[in-house]
């Protein structure tokens, strides 16, 4: 019997090439998914940091006699006059006496779910 000299791919070669393409495609899809999640997390952290800075500035300009500037508060529980909600973000702050007649204000912002990105900043205020 005479074999044909026509070139072509065998079924095994075609299956191997298909498996390689599928594995590479899945790898690229996972990288895209991971990048999207990382971008969303970065946006959350940026927004949290902006909210912390804004709250610190609001507290800084309040008179010292304002209820929000009185000593107390908690970073883990809602305490009257020491917490606020901004959409799905929770803001909590503490006020304590600092050196030389200043106040140490600590503000923390967390997003809705557990393990969500948070930001925390401390500032001495006169």
Description:
With 126 residues, the chain is an alpha+beta fold. The chain has one domain. 40% of the residues lie in helices and 25% in strands. The chain is built from 1 helix and 5 strands; from the N terminus they run H-E-E-E-E-E. It has one helix at 11-61, and strands spanning 72-73, 83-86, 89-97, 103-110, 118-125. Strands 1, 2, 3, 4 and 5 form a 5-stranded antiparallel sheet that branches. Strand 3 and strand 4 (103-110) form a beta hairpin. The longest helix has 51 residues, at 11-61. The protein starts with 10 loop residues before the first helix and ends with a strand. The relative contact order is 0.14. The mean pLDDT is 88.
How are the elements arranged and paired?
Elements (H helix, E strand, L loop, with lengths): L10 H51 L10 E2 L9 E4 L2 E9 L5 E8 L7 E8 L1
Antiparallel strand pairs: 1-3, 2-3, 3-4, 4-5
Offer a few descriptive terms.
126 residues; alpha+beta
**Count of discrete domains:** 1
Share of residues in strands: 15-25%
Number of strands: 5
How much helicity do the residues have?
40-55%
Using only CA atoms, what is the Rg? 28 Å
**In DSSP terms, counting alpha (H) and pi (I) runs of 4 or more, how many helices?**
1
SS-based structural class? Answer: alpha+beta
Average of the residue pLDDT scores = 88
* Low confidence ranges: none
**Between the first and last Cα atoms, what is the distance in angstroms?**
100 Å
User: How do the helices and strands follow one another from N- to C-terminus?
Assistant: HEEEEE
Looking at the structure, what is the overall shape?
rod-shaped
Major beta sheet, specifics?
Answer: 5 strands, antiparallel
């Amino acid at each position: 019997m005479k074999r044909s000299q026509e070139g072509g791919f065998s079924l095994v070669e075609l299956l191997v090439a298909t498996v390689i393409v599928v594995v590479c495609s899945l790898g690229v899809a996972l990288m895209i998914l991971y990048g999207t999640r990382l971008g969303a997390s970065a946006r959350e952290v940026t927004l949290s940091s902006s909210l912390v800075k804004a709250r610190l500035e609001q507290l800084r300009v309040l008179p010292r006699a304002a209820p929000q500037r009185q000593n107390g508060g908690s970073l883990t529980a809602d305490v009257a006059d020491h917490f606020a909600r901004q959409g799905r973000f929770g803001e909590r702050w503490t006020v304590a006496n600092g050196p030389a007649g200043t106040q140490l204000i600590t503000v923390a912002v967390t997003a809705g779910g557990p393990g969500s990105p948070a930001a925390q900043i401390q500032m001495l205020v006169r």
